[in-house]
Task: inverse folding
């Protein structure tokens, strides 16, 4: 399973950050608004109190008393209004209050700083009704156009407060004040703070996100590398197990063959000698031709048995199961065995030419190197279309031992060459090549402290050259090759 | 058992048999083949299993025992080890188609075999080896006169020659030898050959290689030249054919794995010294460890290695040591002249 850590992290953290940022902004906005409303309400209440103290008894109370019996059109022309209006404007000048209205207990506008509105019946207005019932109501309203004192303002946020005015003696609501005050700059300030806050939050989350992103990406890389290493190790193990069990099988069969070979060979050999002994008798009896035939027959059997002995011996040497893992081996002997085995594994139209120089013993895991050499020889043979030859050479190069496997086949195209040691890279059809042969070969050679190189010419052939140190790679050869 | 009857049914050779041979194998075909091969020269008795063969050994006297390794009831090495106790005079040959490292190591250390022969055997070679074994067995004293292998450790003149450059091994051997014998430690072949002129050297303890020199071949040549010296080989890694060669051509007494368990080494040294004393008391016993001569190719290889080692030693050391190199060269010439004459 492939876990896309970075992708999942990005998605989740994005969602989380947006959510948290949004919630924070929302709560801040709401809190600022309610704070403002509260503040503004008390400001409006105070303002009203100022009006009430200054104007109620002297102006509004008599106005209300007069208005009780007057129709609306008459009310508009009330003589006191001009005086009241002047005083109101005096009081309101310089404050944030834009408008002030006074209602009588029936909900009729007895005074408005916008004089045109005097006489309007607002009995149905929820704010007015609420205030008549004794509640103070405040709300934020937005007006595109608003007639304030002596001017018309546009695009304003206003706080609208309805306040009941009670009779100090009875406590009854005797009228309602309605006050509008401008909070546009205040609100703009709040919005600005909100934006700054949001920016700060987004920025800090961004920094946090980036930091985490790099940590996570690093972690992801480590995880992926470990997964790859584990996979490599597992493949090696699987391959090694396959080879080991195959080797065990082959070695087992080879050894089992030794017993029948032993007595067959022994008996045929003895039989030939017996026939020799009988020859004079048979000749005397005139049957020397038959004697010769029998001798030849048995001779052929003996030859066949010799061939089988050779094969068994080579199989045994190839698997080398009877040896400890790392020994000082004669690589030429090893190569001869591999060439013998390979001849049976490749088509007869391809010749294997052996050209060995004397080599010192090389400390190695011979059964693993056998696997590498066999792989290179069969690979070489597969690159040959029609007749051709694979040449196996060995020589000493300073302190190192070189083994070269050359074929005169098709060569490796330029676009394939960089990938020949890549895992799972195979030019063979699916199911035929695993793409593991050369990578494993390289791993085995490297674990011996050596290296493998390839040189090729399209149409002329390919040479794989393995160089190995004579003494192995210190600790490397003692531990590593055993694992593969 | 039909195989046993078979040998009786076979026509005996006109000449007096050169020895009595007991063949043990669970495969009747092999027993018949061995019979046909050996009956001309020897009196052959066969057994199809270890227990059956042990019974025969208890009743009769044999000169040579040839046993297969893989047998169902009792393994070949196990059988040969018991046979050693019942019939110590008989020479033991292990004949196997499997190259099993454990088996060959046990055959050295426990069964103390004379030869390790692989199946399929060489039809001319095997009768020769059996003939050699039979001749040796017949030259040995009768059963009663056989010296007990568990003799008191006579603190004597005996010396142990240790050849190797591993300091830890030196320390361990020194510790284990303790009161048993004096240890002479040498780190090069020339010194080893020089020390072997000393008659008191009873046991040689060596590793399988020293620098670039493969000591297994050298041990084979040394055994040929100094048959009275009992050899013990120490090795970390072993291959079946190396051990087989050390048996057939080196007649080593023990093959021990490294790192060394101290107790086992002491036990081994004790046994090796005892064997050496037996051989000194009855020089005829040394014949039991007669070796096959090393082939020409092997000798040439050993010589090349030794010469290369001598050269590199002469190169690395100062003038007094260059005389060591030439001394070594002199040794080599004499050494190989002798080895050649032996072969």
Result:
């Amino acid at each position: 399973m492939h876990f896309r850590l970075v992708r999942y992290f990005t998605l989740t953290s994005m969602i989380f950050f947006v959510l948290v940022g949004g919630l924070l902004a929302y709560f801040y906005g709401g809190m600022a608004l309610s704070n403002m409303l509260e503040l503004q309400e008390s400001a409006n209440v105070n303002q009203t109190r100022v009006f009430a103290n200054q104007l109620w008894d002297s102006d509004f109370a008599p106005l209300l008393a007069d208005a009780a019996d007057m129709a609306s059109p008459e009310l508009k022309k009330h003589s006191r209004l001009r005086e009241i209006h002047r005083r109101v404007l005096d009081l309101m000048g310089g404050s944030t209050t834009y408008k002030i209205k006074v209602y009588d207990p029936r909900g009729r506008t007895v005074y408005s700083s916008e004089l045109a509105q005097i006489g309007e019946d607002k009995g149905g207005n929820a704010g007015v009704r609420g205030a008549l019932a004794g509640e103070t109501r405040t709300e934020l309203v937005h007006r595109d156009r608003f007639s304030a004192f002596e001017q018309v303002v546009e695009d304003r946020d206003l706080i609208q407060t309805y306040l009941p005015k009670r009779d100090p003696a009875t406590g009854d609501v005797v009228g309602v004040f309605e006050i509008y005050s401008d909070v546009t700059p205040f609100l703009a300030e709040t919005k600005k703070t909100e934006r700054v806050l949001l920016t700060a939050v987004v920025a800090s989350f961004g920094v946090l996100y980036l930091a985490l992103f790099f940590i996570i990406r690093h972690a992801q890389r480590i995880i992926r590398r470990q997964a790859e290493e584990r996979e490599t190790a597992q493949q090696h193990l699987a391959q090694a197990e396959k080879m080991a069990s195959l080797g065990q099988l082959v070695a087992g069969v080879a050894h089992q063959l030794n017993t029948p070979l032993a007595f067959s060979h022994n008996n045929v050999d003895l039989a030939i000698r017996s026939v020799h002994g009988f020859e004079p008798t048979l000749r005397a009896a005139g049957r020397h031709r038959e004697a010769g035939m029998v001798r030849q027959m048995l001779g052929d059997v003996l030859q066949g048995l010799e061939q089988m002995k050779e094969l068994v011996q080579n199989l045994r040497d190839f698997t080398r199961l009877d040896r400890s893992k790392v020994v000082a081996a004669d690589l030429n002997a090893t190569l001869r065995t591999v060439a013998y085995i390979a001849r049976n594994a490749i088509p007869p139209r391809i010749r294997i030419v052996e050209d060995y120089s004397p080599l010192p013993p090389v400390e190695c895991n011979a059964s693993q190197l056998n696997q590498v050499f066999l792989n290179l020889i069969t690979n070489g043979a597969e690159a040959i279309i029609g007749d051709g030859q694979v040449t196996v050479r060995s020589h000493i190069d300073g302190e190192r031992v070189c083994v070269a496997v050359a074929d005169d086949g098709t060569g490796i195209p330029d676009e394939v060459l960089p990938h020949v040691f890549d895992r799972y890279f195979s030019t063979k059809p699916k199911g035929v090549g695993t793409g593991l042969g050369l990578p494993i070969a390289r791993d085995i050679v490297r674990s011996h402290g050596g290296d493998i190189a390839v040189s090729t010419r399209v149409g002329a052939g390919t040479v794989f050259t393995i160089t190995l140190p004579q003494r192995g790679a210190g600790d490397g050869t003692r531990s590593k090759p055993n694992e593969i | 058992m039909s195989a046993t009857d078979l040998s009786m049914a076979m026509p005996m050779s006109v000449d007096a048999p050169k020895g009595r041979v007991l063949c043990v194998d669970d495969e009747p075909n092999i027993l018949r083949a061995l019979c046909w091969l050996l009956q001309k020269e020897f009196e052959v008795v066969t057994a199809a299993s270890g227990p059956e063969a042990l019974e025969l050994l208890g009743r009769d006297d044999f000169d040579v025992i040839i046993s297969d390794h893989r047998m169902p009831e009792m393994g070949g090495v196990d059988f040969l080890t018991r046979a050693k106790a019942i019939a110590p005079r008989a020479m033991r040959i292990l004949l196997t188609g499997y190259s099993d490292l454990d088996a060959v190591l046990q055959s050295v250390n426990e069964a103390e075999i004379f030869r390790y022969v692989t199946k399929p055997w060489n039809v001319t070679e095997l009768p020769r080896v059996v003939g050699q074994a039979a001749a040796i067995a017949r030259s040995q004293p009768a059963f009663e006169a056989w010296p007990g292998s568990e003799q008191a450790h006579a603190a004597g003149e005996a010396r142990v020659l240790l050849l190797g450059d591993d300091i830890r091994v030196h320390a361990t051997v020194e510790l284990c030898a303790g009161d048993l014998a004096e240890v002479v430690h040498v780190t090069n072949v020339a010194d080893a050959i020089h020390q072997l002129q000393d008659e008191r050297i009873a046991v040689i303890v060596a590793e399988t290689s020293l620098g670039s020199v493969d000591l297994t071949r050298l041990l084979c040549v040394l055994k040929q030249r100094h048959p009275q010296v009992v050899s013990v080989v120490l090795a970390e890694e072993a291959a079946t054919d190396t051990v087989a060669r050390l048996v057939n051509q080196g007649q080593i007494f023990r093959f021990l794995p490294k790192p060394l368990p101290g107790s086992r080494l002491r036990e081994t040294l004790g046994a090796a010294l005892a064997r050496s004393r037996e051989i000194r008391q009855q020089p005829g016993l040394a014949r039991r460890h007669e070796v096959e001569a090393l082939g020409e190719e092997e000798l040439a290889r050993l010589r090349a290695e030794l010469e290369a080692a001598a050269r590199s030693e002469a190169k690395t050391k100062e003038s007094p040591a260059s005389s060591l190199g030439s001394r070594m060269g002199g040794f080599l010439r004499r050494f190989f002249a002798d080895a050649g004459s032996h072969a």
